[in-house]
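Blackboard transcription, Thursday session:
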Amino acid sequence: MPLPKSFYDRDPADVARELLGKLLVVDDKLRGRIVETEAYYGLSDPASRAFKGKTKLSRWMWEDAGSAFVYMVHGYWLFNVITEREGKPSGVLIRAVEPVEGIDYMIERRGTENPKNLTSGPGKLTIAFGITGKDNGTKVYDGHSRIVIEKGEMARFKIATSGRIGVREDLPEHLRFFVEGNKFVSR
DNA sequence: AGGAAGATCTACT
DNA sequence: GTAGATCTTCCTA
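(Written on the board underneath:)
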């Protein structure tokens, strides 16, 4: 069962923290455990795609909680889930997952057999899972969607935080969350 | 037409 | 570990 829409209708930092350990599922055959996330706010966050207002690309950030927002940067697609109510842009970037199921497909798409290099980065995991701009607007709380996020079980783990990676201008708060010691975290 | 963007890969010290 | 090239759209001029 996918996580309910209400799970995403909250502050993105809370959602980012609690998405750790959850399962990203695509086409019911590719599964990955989320081990690294980042929260992004809207108009008040210079690193957010919504900062400069609605454009053809960023308009997906104004969708309702639990919608997919896929953005391309430097030739790679990055997968985000929108948080908070419709009309209030914010979201969570999925930065890394740990491969769980469908590893053969991931190896084929990524062109490498090194499991550590399959999904250990935001641009890598979209390639491994076959996620592109066409998936914009997908409702990840709807069981019929191609992309959903499920509860999943994971042994106890410790959550660490840091500033966000790669952004030109970060906010003072720590908005990156990751599973401490997990080898699939991007760095 | 040119540049920016939340990254990755490769080839070195 | 760090440095540089290169990746693809869309946005702004």
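Lecturer's comment: Residues 38, 40, 47-49, 71-76, 78, 80, 93, 95, 121-124, 164-168, 186 of chain A lie near DNA strand B (CB under 10 Å from a C1').
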